[in-house]
Specification:
By secondary structure, the protein is α+β, with helices and mostly antiparallel strands. It has 6 helices and 9 strands, in the order H-E-H-H-E-E-E-H-E-H-E-H-E-E-E. Strand 7 and strand 8 form a beta hairpin. It is an enzyme of class 2 (transferase).
Length: 182
């Protein structure tokens, strides 16, 4: 499977497993799972065909491990805008986590902190490199440090998804460290 096809199938899966399952007639269960055969059939009925082998390749090849397969079911690991309960237990975060963004958002972030926007949670990365890649999707990245240790001590709840993305409801501004700008 070539890289363009891998990306195309991955984006299709993300759209329908995280944001718009109803668009192709799918219903995710309460934890976000759907039968793989039902997904493949629904996609084909709506003009996008892919095989189980292609799906398996996308799941295995995705560097961000966006999807999980359990038996004959699949789900997105995080990033949903539709209501799901991933069943992730609370976890103790490392002292610092990171968030990649772009300069255009810094004024709002300085005053409001990090908010989930249309997602269920704020997504945080375990290292600066990952956060930089996330921020670079929208332009020149700016990496913010999050004092996760202090947040945790102050009662904020963290969970970690199957692919290592840290999730929390919000990050108030006082827990953010902004890079020095010249």
């Amino acid at each position: 499977m070539d890289e363009r096809r891998t990306v195309k199938v991955s984006k299709y899966l993300s759209k329908h497993l995280r944001h718009q399952p109803e668009r192709i007639g799918l219903t995710l269960d309460e934890a976000g799972w759907v039968e793989i055969d039902a997904l493949i059939e629904a996609a084909a009925a709506h003009g996008f065909r892919f095989t189980r082998a292609e799906l398996d390749h996308v799941v295995e090849a995705n560097d961000k491990r966006r999807f999980a397969v359990q038996g004959d079911r699949i789900r997105a690991n995080q990033g949903h805008t539709v209501e799901v309960d991933l069943g992730l237990p609370a976890a103790t975060p490392p002292p610092y986590l990171y968030h990649g963004t772009v300069a255009a958002h810094l004024t709002a972030i300085r005053s409001e902190g990090l908010r989930p926007m249309n997602r269920h949670d704020v997504h945080l990365s375990p290292d600066r490199e990952t956060a930089s890649r996330v921020g670079a999707r929208r332009g020149r990245p700016v990496v913010l440090s999050v004092d996760a240790g202090a947040m945790h001590l102050d009662g904020h709840v963290f969970r970690v998804s199957a692919n290592g993305v840290w999730l929390t409801e919000t990050v108030p501004p006082q827990y953010l460290r902004f890079p020095q700008t010249r």
